[in-house]
Amino acid sequence: MTYKGLIEKYKQYLKINENTPFLTLLEGNTPLIKSVNLSTQYGVDIYFKYEGLNPTGSFKDRGMVYAVAKAIEEGSNHIICASTGNTSAAAAAYAARANIKCSVIIPSGKIAYGKLAQALIYGAKVIAIDGNFDEALDIVKSLSKKNNLTLVNSINPHRLQGQKTSAFEIVDDMGNSPDYLCLPVGNAGNITAYWMGFNEYYKNKKCTKLPQVFGFQAKGASPIVEGKVFKHPETIATAIRIGNPVNWENALKVANESNGDILAITDKDIISAYKLIASNEGIFAEPASCISLAGAIKKIESGQIPKKSSVVCVLTGNGLKDPDTAINNIDKVALTPCDENIIKEIIFK
Length: 349
Fold this sequence. Notes:
Elements: H1 6-9, E1 32-34, H2 37-42, E2 45-50, H3 60-73, E3 78-82, H4 86-98, E4 101-107, H5 113-121, E5 125-129, H6 133-146, E6 150-151, H7 157-163, H8 165-174, E7 180-184, H9 189-203, E8 212-218, H10 223-226, H11 248-257, E9 261-265, H12 267-281, H13 287-301, E10 310-315, H14 323-328, H15 340-347
Parallel strand pairs: 2-10, 3-4, 3-6, 4-5, 7-8, 7-10, 8-9
Antiparallel strand pairs: 1-2
Helix pairs in contact: 3-4, 3-7, 4-5, 7-9, 8-9, 12-13
């Protein structure tokens, strides 16, 4: 059977009608990769939901395809968003696919080049401002209200409806919900969407339990953990460098209802997990993604995730999104003479 994209695959769980296009770049259907080495090391069954294999390289494609389809259904021909990177790439790609306009506002100097390149090559009008993500979001909210523009940030409810399909896929693959779900928290839309998806499947008897949900923010951008807005958030994990999350209250609700938690993780631990996933499992994910493993390790080592549990760590984006971080955190390749004996000595050193 040919895979036809999220809207068609999960149409019974989405609000569509005869005017909703089956827009798709064949998003979703991402692999749930069982960890081999790290599961053995930590004594739990760790799985990675690798969203970096979506068409534009991040989980944002799930929500964006549905948001853009609904925009077209409503007669819109121009979408707009604020972005730290992944949202802009997804919005631009689906706008190009649908042959509509896309405008993106980004915080200058605060977006990984891999993501900015995507938005530009897809043909979006990209505007960099001297401000942070939260200020960019305020601007696009105002512009969308005053002009005939469809806002496609996660404040758009259709985004979360599309993103919940990842929870469906996890259950479809595992046969049930995992014991624990660990994921990054930036604007907090994804943690809200996953919980929505698991609950919907549970009510439809597609699974027999709900996971405990652990969300993780970078320490330099942890407004939910600290209980205060971060006016100048800072972290190496650019995708979650957000100081005032749109879905703040929803994230707290998920943590409470799932008997879970939201914790802050240092950049040092994020980079450690970033290297660990790549060198131990052969999976290259962007830094913000790897906070899910960094946080899971903290929970495992503290005993809050018991041995032999099943844990799904959501890897939200592909490592190629942020090549600079990889280059800055690996050993440089030294120039070696073209001599077989010297090369052999290096190999077996």
